[in-house]
Amino acid sequence: MAVGLLTSTLALTAPTAHAAGPAAPYDFNGDGYRDLAIGAPGATVGGKTKAGAVTVVYGGSTGPSTAKYKLLTQNTTGVPDSAESGDGFGTAVASADLNKDGYADLVVGTPGEERSSDTDDGMVQVVWGGTSGLSGSLTLAGGDTYTDRLGQALAIGDFDDNDKIDVAMGGRGAADLVILQGPYTRAGGADGGPRAASMANAPKPYDPAYGVEYLSAGDIYGQGFDSLVVHGRKKGTDDALTAVADTRVLDFLGWMEYVPGGYVSAVGDVTKDGRADLLIGNHREPSADPSGALGGKATLVLGAPESQWVNARSTGTITQDASGVPGTAEPGDGFGGGVAIGDFTGDGYGDLAVGAPYESFGGAEDTGTVTLLRGMSVGWSPTGAVTLSQSTSGVPDTAESGDRFGARVVLSDTTKAARPT
User: How many alpha carbons fall within 13 Å on the CB side of residue 172?
Assistant: First the structure.
């Protein structure tokens, strides 16, 4: 199925020469510090409600600095199109050095963008990194009659095992999963063209009313290419459905590997065995989703060689009632609403962060917490876990009702300390 692709509408100059080798994701100015990109799809821009914005806070030796930031919208000079009500610019964000010039680039999903007679076609844009940070933009893909809300989910990786970066985009409609194949240039976007699929045709069909809601990616097989983790809902229900796709195969829908259902996921090497592991978050109660748990849960699925993946090992369910996990599972906590993997102890094992945005304490409602769990060779350790909130010493601000701290969790090394913050 065709997906509308646009060439650049900007007259862009050649980038300044820079050190050889691609930059790490989110290092937009190439200084070695990872930066933060925070989407606010409900932001009002120029009087247009829910037009959306992305705030980029640049990293430094003391961490992200609010004195050094950039606000991006579709009204920003150099960004194609313009801010309109309901666009949702920033609904999903992802990063990689797409053109391998030594500066990471920012990919932004705008699922509410209207590009044809259909409503909410969606659009995905890239904002280019450079020595001064982000500037100049290009529309990578725009929805057409086959796609709706393109860009509501994004992931980046080498999905076809050719050492070129690809961008995976989730949406709704007849083609709800689109993979745009690299390489990329500032002048014309992706040279490899798009591949499109309908998850409604998978062995366990996804409900097209929801489409592909979330994507993550990583080298789960340990073979040098990235698998794509695809989240949606079971057809005819709103129950979570999650599968791992090997998109090296042209008809990859026939080779989907199903894992415990959840709504978000993170990929990283928890066990230090050279293969990425998968942390899946499901915040719902079992009365709302049979794959949920009291107060919510996270499930860690360990990576394995390709021949073993169908029987992948799992450490089982992590809840607030699990041994070593602080707190108590209570209805509506939302544990698993946000998940992340990163080595915050510096021992080489990926550690786990699980958000519970509806956790309430101190008389306040829905204040939220984040629980940190240490990784180890067999999965996660039941010792050494801690829970953070906005009332924790060293965490800015104060826990208040409705804060929902932990709704989204990111572990990123913004200080070049070899450990995420």
Answer: 16
Strand order in the sheet with 257-259: 214-218, 227-233, 240-245, 257-259
Cα separation, 119 vs 162, in Å, equals 36
**pLDDT band at 213, cuts 50/70/90?**
very high
CB of 148 closer than 8 Å to CB of 121: yes
Q: 231: Cβ–Cβ under 8 A, 6 or more apart, which residues?
A: 153, 212, 213, 214, 215, 240, 241, 242, 262, 263, 264, 265
What are 71-105's pLDDT values in tens digits?
Answer: 999 999 999 889 999 999 999 999 999 999 999 99
- CA–CA distance, 355 with 120 (Å, rounded to integer): 30
Task: With beta carbons less than 8 A apart as the criterion, state whether 28 and 35 touch.
Answer: yes
Give the pTM. Answer: 0.91
CA distance 366 to 331: 12
**Nearby residues of 401 by Cβ (< 8 Å), 6 or more positions away:** 364, 365, 366, 367
SS3 label, residue 85: coil
**What is the signed CA dihedral for 196, 28, 39, 387, rounded to 10 degrees?**
110
